[in-house]
Structure formats: C-alpha cells, structure tokens
Amino acid sequence: MSGLLNAFGDLLNTATIASIVAGASALMFATMGETISEKAGVINLSVDGSMMLAALAGFVVAIETETVWYGFVAAAIVGSGVALIVALGSIRLSLNQVAVGFVLFALCTELSRFLGSSYVGEVAVGVPAWGIPGLKSIPLIGPVLFDHNIVVYLSYLTVIATYLFMYRTRRGLELQGIGERPEAAHSRGIPVNRLRYLYTALGGALIGIGGAAYSLDVKLGWSDRPTRNLGWIVLAIVIFGGWHPLRAAFGVILFGTLQAYAINLVNEFPSVSQVLPSIPFPAMIAVLVIVNWKALLKWLDRYPFLRAVLRSDPPGAIGTRFEVS
Known about the structure:
The protein is mostly helical. It has a domain at 2-227. It has 16 helices and no strands. It has helices at residues 2-11, 14-23, 25-39, 47-65, 68-91, 97-116, 141-145, 150-168, 170-180, 182-187, 192-218, 230-240, 245-268, 280-291, 294-300, 304-310. Helix 4 runs antiparallel to helix 5 and helix 5 (68-91) runs antiparallel to helix 11 (192-218). 42% of the residues are buried.
C-alpha cells in the first residue's frame, strides 16, 4: 500500500505534471483530428498505422532536410493522404469504412516497419524548447503549462480552436449537421460529401502531426513501431470524450496520468516492471466500458446535466454513406 501511495505522491510533483502535459501533445493532435473526422460521419480506423507512418515520414524528412518543421509538414501530408483513402473508399467506392480503415492500419504499420528499418538509431533535429517569458515564472502554473516548446502550445490551441469552431461558428454547425443528419444538411444546400472529404483530410493531417510530434518531440528518434497502440487509444478517447473536444482532451490527460503512475509504480515494484507499463491500456478500456454501461446510462437519464457532462451519443450518421438522390 505504501508503494502505491508513494507512486501517487510522485504524480503531484510539478515536474511530473509538466511532463504529462508535454507528453500529451501527440495524442492531443491525433484525438482532435479523429474527433473532427467522426463528427463529419467518417470513422478513420487507420489511426494507429497512420500515426506510425506519419511519424516515420516526419522523422525522415527532418533528418534529410535538417529542418524539423518540414518533418511536420510531411507528416501532415501523409496523415491526410491516408485519411482521404478512407473517405474515397466510403464515399466514391461504397466500401465499408471500418474495413478500409483496418486494412490501411495494417498496411501503414508494415510500411513504417519496412521503410524505417534503416533509420533505427538515427538522430534528427528536435523541436527547440521555448519557455514563454513571464508566463513560465508564474508559481505552479508556469512550469506546468508555459515552459515547453511551440508544439505543446499548438496542441493547446488546437483543442481550443476545435471546440470554438465546432460549437461557435456556422461552419462548425455544418460539420455537425453532415455527421448527424446529412439528408437535412443536403436539403439546406450544404455539400455533404465535399465537406466530408475536407474534414476527413483535415482530421488526417492532425493525426499525422500527432505522429510527428511523437517521433520529433515526445520521444525523439525512431524504433520499431514507436507509436504502436496509441492510435487505438485515440479511438477509445474519442468515444470516452463523447465526441466533444474538451472532454476528449481530458481523456488524453487522464491517459497520460495513468502512464506516469505506471512508470512510478515500476520504481516501487521492480519485480513486475514488465507488466506495469501496460496498465494504462486496459485501464482506459475499463473506463470506456463503465462510461457505456447501460445501468449507468439509465441512471444518467434522470439527471440531464450529468449526462451532458459525462456522456454524449455518437453522431447519428457516423460510418454511413450519403448518396445524393
């Protein structure tokens, strides 16, 4: 018990909290990207493989050009391209989105392993640190939020921008409309399929940036499948967050906290060090099951405010194909 408490106590350390925030940037980008895509009605199940291939593309381009920002651009292009294949398969070819996404996940994963084998151990230019003058000196909050680099700050802005766009702009309402009721959106003159292509590509670009954020910032370097399983966590967090950007961002921080706790537990219980790092993955699945537990949902129906905070239903037309009659 004392070991568990000691590990929890280490989480309260300012440096640990700051590391959780910094490490969450890659998942934050990818989660916002998948949220946008699914809000538009397209499930991009290739996230895990797409992140991996984008992470490789970003890393390789950063090495070859010696410019880290070119790496992020390349990763965004790769992520967007993979997502567009999912959209094309669904919208144009009438294929099942889940099947296409899963095939692309496997293809991208194997491509990243094959193409990245010669880059294992290579060193790329990382993202330079850039603490914000003045703000980083604020007690407690400063070191946690404002003593990182521009990629971490952009992850904050991406969450805020995604929320404001979805719920505070007309275009955001159109995005929700094509994912909820595409027929009604079409009757109002909204180009449903064109916008689905656009938002799926945008979501894919953010997923790609998330991959590059991992290989060029969170864990600089390339190894065999460095981002494995993170894409599946992204998909789980989107559901856990109820397809809402702010709640999904909370899910990312929760996962990062679980990871940090698992690492701290390794120091306290070295005899089970091989098992502990995997704790966050089943823990997130358990949370997802609880959030979707029928008994809990039935109880939440009696308290609309709590249901609005804790739970949202998926977009009504998610995973479906819209045909113009």
